[in-house]
């Protein structure tokens, strides 16, 4: 397991510390939401990933129905995983620098088919091309507070969670680095995973929180990000909820979580309840 030198992280933290899962101790755990869910989740599969020491961010490879990329921060690797069994297809060393503490990843698709990853040890967005070369295409607008990511196709934008103290946001970032964000006061605490998917002609965003086995859903209208509601995963007894991704081909979500003795990935089917628009909480866009 990767050890963390607290001295290196002091410039990043005012009142807390960050562990090797990216959890910021200065952010309150919060309370899960109360009320009816707008979305229903049904678990269809669970599996371990034997090769991984950590399973943080997840991102489905867009053209594949059965494999996704995952962030193994403990071993500094991106791993390609079979979505049916947890077996490893491939792995890539993360070796762009010295202090690499990474959570989020997303796959740019179609061409150039590279991988974007973020870090809580620096404020850059890192990119690995198909030749294996690492670069910094732009500064990460979410800075060291970004976690889960997803690549929006076909608009070529990165979505990313942001949490600092009691400020929670979702960023939408172009591949040139320009960005916009929306506040997400509905979440219970520090956000971890993020997934995007298409529904009803719009892009939808789902996010998770480290200490809450709930998915929060939002709809992007092209200018506003509207809160839709929540769905319980039914997971209990977990230490942490971490990565989230959506499979277009399977029309399902994959979620990574840590139990006391092991890491797991669960796949969920979902159904969305029809809601009247005046029941949605509109979130003012900010720039």
Topology at a glance:
Elements: H1 6-9, E1 39-47, E2 58-60, E3 67-72, E4 77-82, E5 88-93, E6 102-107, E7 115-119, E8 124-128, E9 134-139, E10 146-152, E11 157-164, E12 167-174, E13 179-183, E14 191-199, E15 202-209, E16 212-220, E17 225-232, E18 240-247, E19 252-259, E20 262-272, E21 281-283, E22 285-286
Antiparallel strand pairs: 1-20, 2-3, 3-4, 4-5, 6-7, 7-8, 8-9, 10-11, 11-12, 12-13, 13-22, 14-15, 15-16, 16-17, 17-21, 18-19, 19-20
Question: Keyphrases for this structure?
Answer:
287 residues, five-stranded antiparallel beta sheet, disordered C terminus, disordered N terminus, mainly beta
Task: Give a verbal description of the structure.
- The protein is 1% helix and 51% strand.
- With 287 residues, it is mainly β.
- It has a single domain, classed as Neuraminidase.
- The strands form 5 sheets. It has a 5-stranded antiparallel beta sheet, with no helix packed on it. The protein has a 5-stranded antiparallel beta sheet with strand order 14-15-16-17-21, with no helix packed on it. Strands 1-20-19-18 form a 4-stranded antiparallel beta sheet, with no helix packed on it.
- The N terminus and C terminus are likely disordered.
